[in-house]
Design brief:
Elements: E1 2-5, H1 9-17, H2 23-41, E2 47-52, H3 56-68, E3 73-77, H4 85-97, E4 101-102, E5 110-114, H5 126-137, E6 141-145, E7 166-170, E8 173-174, E9 188-192, H6 198-201, E10 207-209, E11 232-237, H7 241-253, E12 258-263, E13 274-276, E14 285-288, H8 298-305, E15 311-313, H9 323-326, E16 332-334, H10 338-347, H11 355-360, H12 362-372, E17 377-380, E18 385-389, E19 392-396, H13 408-421, H14 426-443, H15 453-459
Parallel strand pairs: 1-8, 2-3, 2-5, 3-4, 5-6, 6-7, 7-9, 10-19, 11-12, 11-14, 12-13, 14-15, 15-16, 16-17
Antiparallel strand pairs: 1-10, 17-18, 18-19
Bound molecules: ligand NPW and potassium ion.
Organism: Sulfurimonas diazotrophicus
Keywords: ATP-binding, Isomerase, Lyase, Metal-binding, Multifunctional enzyme, NAD, NADP, Nucleotide-binding, Potassium
InterPro entries: Carbohydrate_kinase_pred_CS (IPR017953), CARKD (IPR000631), Nnr (IPR030677), Ribokinase-like (IPR029056), YjeF_N_dom (IPR004443), YjeF_N_dom_sf (IPR036652)
């Protein structure tokens, strides 16, 4: 797990006030980290073009030019007037060293974006938008200083955004780099230490980035067990029975001892799943919503979930009349995709927004929902999954675009249901099922377009 911050200004200030470091010292470390990243990948003499903006992001780029000049063929481009005191100081030093400042970007091995960082305060002008498009079209290795220009600190993107192969971010990981829109822009991310170790630079934060190694599988360690030792998941099987079948198969594969589809009518199901009209007494977790449609009257649904067993809720349940009732429960995991989350937000009176508005401020909307419903676990699907409960938040950035396919969400609900049935807390069930889901997708050996729900289900066999 790693910490995520919505801003790092206060962390920088602590370096000055508490540790006696200076802005210049921090900047030198920032530039040195980028120089190290270039040296690691490119030999002496390679061509490096650094595009520097008016503020301290530009100053970082100017300091990088000084560090590389002599060993590398460095050129600096200054599309805007150099403004901040640190940028002017670094610029003077470059002039003394004779680093070439050129008007246009020429073909190069490494292209560095040091135009804007955390200080991007208003929409990009047309000149910078054109420049970023030109930079993106070049074949060079692209390095972003701190954050790619065009990515705002909240995670939304301007009309154009620099598409980096590598972002060297300063001091700590910023939350905005893990929005869905950011996923196209940031590339690989490394953190530059700025003169003190990260553990001293960082403070406590409610936002955590999940790492692949955080996955805790439902491994079976006790030998003296039987199927009843691993829980019994009920999956409410509605109009589109395929969705419930996928969830049920996923749950069985992910360790649930028994899985029963709770259906109104007899449905053709795989032989390893069971089927019942009423909820068997041993069911200790229920998945509801996937393919539900209008099949059940409210009373029929209530009969299937009418005690306080943990629930995982997906898809059609967010538009269902029973939503308000369900949200009062203590142990519940909600797994909306962005469109479903906008429905959830408006039906709970938290916010009225469309998908575009939601995606521009995913983190804020998740915080608002979790404040209003602190017992519920929310898992907001997307290119980067956000999981929240109360004032704790996690981001799983490990998914790939292979998961963008019908049925992927049903598999995830099944995995969550399996872990609920096996005794995980709702928060842990959401975290570890999500990590297993993304890990199974990453390990799929075919092309990304080819991944099916069955591949994901098979994928958890060998994690
Ligand atoms: N703090 C530290 O200790 C450390 C900070 N570090 C580095 O500093 C970076 C933050 O620096 P920063 O605050 O100077 O902001 P930055 O992103 O350079 O932009 C500000 C400038 O851009 C301008 N401007 C803004 N938007 C614009 C627009 N749309 N179109 C045109 N102009 C626009 C804005 O102009 P103004 O709004 O003032 O008119 C101002 O001139 C941070 O990302 C990291 O790289 C590291 O060295 C480590 C230590
Ligand atoms: K930048």
């Amino acid at each position: 797990m790693q910490n995520l911050f919505d801003e790092v200004d206060s962390l920088d200030r602590r370096c000055y006030d508490a540790y006696g470091l200076s802005e210049e010292l921090l900047m030198e470390h920032a530039a040195e980290a980028m120089a190290g990243a270039v040296r690691e990948r490119f030999g002496a003499g390679s061509r490096v073009v650094i595009v520097c903006g008016p503020g301290n992001n530009g100053a970082d780029g100017l300091a990088l030019a000084r560090l590389l000049h002599g060993g590398y063929h460095v050129e600096v481009v200054l599309p805007l007037e150099v403004k901040s005191p640190m940028a002017r100081l670094q610029h003077e030093r470059l002039q003394k060293l004779g680093v070439p400042v050129v008007d246009a970007i020429t073909p190069c091995d490494v292209l560095v974006d040091a135009i804007f960082g955390s200080g991007l305060g208003r929409p990009l002008g047309s000149g910078i938008i054109g420049l970023i498009k030109l930079m993106n079209a070049l074949g060079a290795f692209k390095l972003a200083c701190d954050i790619p220009t065009g990515l705002r600190s909240g995670g939304s993107c301007d009309t154009a955004v620099f598409r980096a192969d590598l972002t060297v971010t300063m001091g700590a990981l910023k939350r905005g780099m893990f929005s869905d829109a950011a996923k196209n822009a940031v590339g690989e991310i490394t953190v530059a230490e700025l003169g003190v170790s990260r553990s001293l630079y960082e403070k406590e934060t409610p936002w955590i980035l999940l790492e692949r190694g955080d996955l805790r599988l439902p491994l079976r360690e006790n030998a003296d067990v039987h199927k009843g030792s691993f829980g019994h998941l009920g999956v409410v099987c509605g109009e589109k029975s395929g969705a419930a079948i996928i969830a049920g198969k996923a749950a069985l594969r992910f360790g649930a001892g028994l899985v029963t589809l709770l259906s109104n009518e007899e449905v053709a199901i795989p032989y390893e799943l069971m089927q019942s009209h009423l909820r068997p007494a041993t069911v200790n977790a229920v998945a509801i919503g996937m393919g539900l449609g209008q099949e059940f009257a409210e009373q029929e649904l209530r009969e299937r979930i009418d005690n306080d067993i943990p629930l995982v809720c997906d898809a059609d349940i967010f538009a269902h009349p029973m939503l308000g009732e369900l949200l009062k429960r203590k142990r519940i995991v909600l797994t909306p995709h962005p469109k479903e989350f906008t429905t959830l937000l408006s039906r709970t009176g938290i916010a009225t927004t469309d998908v575009r508005g939601l995606q521009q401020d995913r983190f804020k909307f998740v915080e608002a929902f979790c404040r209003a419903y602190p017992d519920a676990v929310l898992l907001l699907k997307g290119a980067n999954v956000i999981i929240g409960q109360g004032d704790q938040f996690y981001v799983n950035p490990h998914g790939t675009n292979a998961l963008a396919k019908g049925g992927s969400g049903d598999v995830l609900s099944g995995f969550i249901g399996a872990l609920l049935a096996q005794g995980y807390t709702p928060l842990d069930a959401a975290i570890h099922a999500s990590l297993a889901h993304t890990e199974a997708a990453r390990r799929f050996e075919g092309q990304r377009y080819a991944l099916t729900p069955d591949d994901l289900i098979e994928g958890v066999c060998c994690l």
